[in-house]
Each structure stands twice: as C-alpha cells, then as structure tokens.
Amino acid sequence: MDRLDYNEKTEKGQDRAVKKHSSLAITIIIICAIGIIGILLYRYFKTNKTYDLKVISTVEISSQDKYERYGDGYIRYSTDGAEAVKDGRAIWNISYNMKKPIVDVCGSYCAFADKGQQTLCITDGQGGNFPINVPEKIVDISVASQGVTAVWTDSLAKDHIYVYDINGVLLIDIETSIATDGFPISIDLSDDGQKLVTSYMMIGDELTSWVTFYNFGNVGQNYAGKIVGSYSFKGKIIPEVKFVTNDRVCAFGEDGCILYRMKQVSSELAVQETTRLAAVCSDSEVICLAESETDGTNKIIIFDTDGKEKPTIVTGLSFSGMYVEGEELILYNNSSIIIYNLDGKEKCRTKLDGGIRSVFPVGSGKYCVFGGSEVRILETVEETDENE
User: Fold this and answer.
1) Domains in the chain: how many in total?
2) Per mean pLDDT, which of 21-35, 36-50, 132-146 is the most reliable?
3) Beta strands in 96-193 (DSSP E)
4) Cα(12)–Cα(113) distance, rounded to whole angstroms?
5) What pTM was estimated for this model as a whole?
6) Considering the domain boundaries, does residue 195 fall inside one?
7) Structural domain contains residue 345
8) How, if at all, do strands 89-95 and 81-86 pair?
C-alpha cells in the first residue's frame, strides 16, 4: 500500500514537472519567434527606407594631385609628397621626390613608389617615412598591414619581386625570366605579409597565363622556390590577382574569376563565369562582377568569399566605376551615383555637377566624391513625407 502511494505521488510530480518544462519550452520558443520577427522587421524597414544624398562639405583640390581611399578619409599625393586627410584635416604628411608616384594601402600603412625609377618609401600611418632604394626600375608594389612591401621590378631580360620590411631589410628575392616565365601582369601581397600571388603571361605558339602562389612562412620552406601552387590558363589573360582576405585569393579574367583558398597552400574554391565582363570590385566579404547585357542594362553578380552567390543586382545605369563595402554597392558615372543594398534594393541616388572620378564610403552613411576641382563629402539623409 505504501509503495502504491509512492508511485502515485511520483507520477503526479512527474506530470507537474513535464507541464512546467513544456511551459518553459513554449515560452522560450515564443520569445525566440518574437526576436526573429523583430530582426526581420528591423531589416525590412531598414532596407526599405528611402534616402537622399546631401552634400555636407566641399574642398577645392588641385587637378594635378591624385587621391586614394585611406580608412575613413583619403590620401592626397603628388610628385613631391603625400598627406592623409580625415574629417577635413591632415593627420600625417610625408615628403619625397618622384616623377610618377604610385601608391598602395593596407590598413594604416602606405607604400609610395616612383614607377619606372628606383625609389620606394613606406609610411607607418603616423608620419614616419622609410625610404628604400631598389636595384631596378619599379613596375608595381603591394604593401601588407605591418609595412612589409613587395616590389616588382623590370631589368629587361629578367624581372624581380623583392620583399622588404619597413626598415629596408630584403626578406625575399624572386627572380623570373621573360623567356621561361613570361611577362608579369599583376602581384598582390597578403595582409600578414607571408603570402604572395602573381599573374604572368607567356606568348608562344599559344597565349598562356600562369597564376602562382608563394608562401614565405614555415610551410613554404618545404616547397621549391616557396611556390605552393601554380595554375595555367590557355588562351586567357588574367589581368588582376588579389587577396580579398588573408586566405582568399581572386584571379580576375576576361570572362569571370576563380576564387582560391590559401591558408598555407592554394586550392581552387569556386569559379564564376561571365560572357561580357565589364567591371569588378571586392571587399573582405563579397566579390562583385558586372556583366553588360544586350538590352543595355548591367547585371551585378555577387558572391561571398566561400563562393556562395547572393542576390543579383540589375541596373539601368551606364556606370564607369563601382565600389563595394559592407552591405552596400556604389555605382557611379560622370554625373550620377546610385547606392544599392546587397539584397538588391536601391537605397538612394543623386546627380552631381562638376564631374565624378571616384566614390567611396568614409564612415557610416557618408561618402567621399572626387571630381573636377572638388572633393565633396555626401551624407545619407532619410526622406520624410511632407504630408506628415
């Protein structure tokens, strides 16, 4: 009798526990559902808001100077020096003497070189200037996030890619021959300065391009010439190779691109083909390929750094440049700017007099526009209903 009473009490207790846990589970599910609905509503209203672009500042500039994106500001550079500008004020400047300056930027570090000459200087983003003399004429440069810089030089029969640290210490010397390796087209250094990718073209019985991967770290020591991957493309030119992240590389061709994984050694990750490739751009999250359509529109194919496709954007704007960052794609021509969210919805558009050479974001909701004799800062302002 006592045992029966115990079982009855136990079953009642278990029933109450089940009901209690069921109620708790239902409550958690409801809270999660409300949270998900809230996030979806937030995203919906955020991406469906309409904005105006308003000019909030204008600075006159020299048409002789050149400009480059630098964090939330820009770099102005010329034959006698460079300065970095943010929020309308100079944050550092350096002096040099170059006939044809070129620049590459990674994080706060910048490398400036005199194309066709032998002068290179690296700045640390705080005004420090580290000049380096290289043995041959400079063709191109690529800088990493700590100032390590790859310098591609030309000495007629042979080419070199020298890799220096910021103090001018030579770390790597890669020698190539035009007869055996072809003509170099593009180079890029990884953010950590440990990896390099190159594109070369050989012209023989058949045009052939080569994309080659180098690893300067411990893994690369086990490979001949530190080459950890090499790929040939018959009848194709690969005009640009780029580290889109520290371990993702994109090789852009005339008919699309190939995405590679390169943590230590290289392997092909994804291929995206196009028929009428018009422009490309990328950031650390996505890669964009613009394909011109026969009806006069442009289709922007977007995919992430794992090769997964995102919604395609179709635009009627005949654009001369595009820039992607975060969740926005900027398209522009000489007189118009359109900004799209990456879900395909148009965020805003505007027309500007005076010409547009380049556009890029400089902080949340702000954009820097170079054109004519001015640099203008634009800000997105949410449209309001005048009848409200």
Assistant:
1) 1
2) 132-146
3) 101-106, 109-114, 119-123, 129-133, 137-143, 149-155, 158-164, 170-177, 183-189
4) 82
5) 0.83
6) no
7) no
8) antiparallel
